[in-house]
Amino acid sequence: MEWTDSFVEGANLLNQRKLPINGNDAAILVHYWDAWPKHYNNKPHQHSFFELCYIFDGQGQYIDHNQTYSLAQGVIFLSRPYTRHQILSEKGLKMIFVGFELDKTKSSKEIIDLFASLKDTHSFINKNAEETLVVKIWTSLLIMTAKSYPLLNDSIQGLCAAFFSSVLGHFIDQHSNYKKEKKYSSYSALVYQAKLYIHDNLSQSLKLNDVAEYLHISGRHLSRIFQTELGQSFSSYIKRERVRKAGILLSDSNLPIKEISEITGFNTIHYFTSVFTTEMGLSPGMFRKKFKQQQTL
To answer: Rounded to two decimals, what is the model's pTM?
Structure first.
């Protein structure tokens, strides 16, 4: 399929609708749908969510973890949460992209684990994706929305759900045999409970021993579980969750930055600004400004 301005119109209308994408076992938070007829260079940055991009035309480069990949017609690539990346193109790229994440509080454990596999995929960039299911559903969704087909909200939600299902199927490494052989650790339930508690209490201090006490285990045991199951320390996870929540509030609300720092549990606005800038590559104020600019394009 060739580029059409309907992609831009469809993306704008989807952003205006802001429809929740909820199912029996999953809820997807879409931060933005977008389509650019000319996307040029951007600076190295990272998101707290996934960003999926598809190239219709043009030449460029995608830099991911200091590795450089060629961009051309038919390339699809997935930027994973907290993965520093950059897009370069001197003459511009015709591309569509979408930013999204899983709402873990409204999703089943199986879906949460699938998104964890998506985050760790090694197959995050593919060529010749024109005829793939994910691209066909994506472009159909944008065009049908732009052409004002008599779709009910449920119909659009169904298309969106099918699209994100196809994303999982496309990018999760097939050699992992996830669907057939995935084994769950006995610690998974504890990790999930800890994550939920952290998510709901980000404004609090969230000390290791306090969360461990809530789960009726020792702080040492909880620390070991986080390292084993998530591959990161308890404190690192807390910091990233605070930054992720702050990013959402900066994007989706007009709350003062000082209030956002308090909601997300940072002791001072200076510390909040320092941590956020280190993690995201932009200060909170610049992050909000850039998001607003993208929304008005």
So the answer is: 0.59
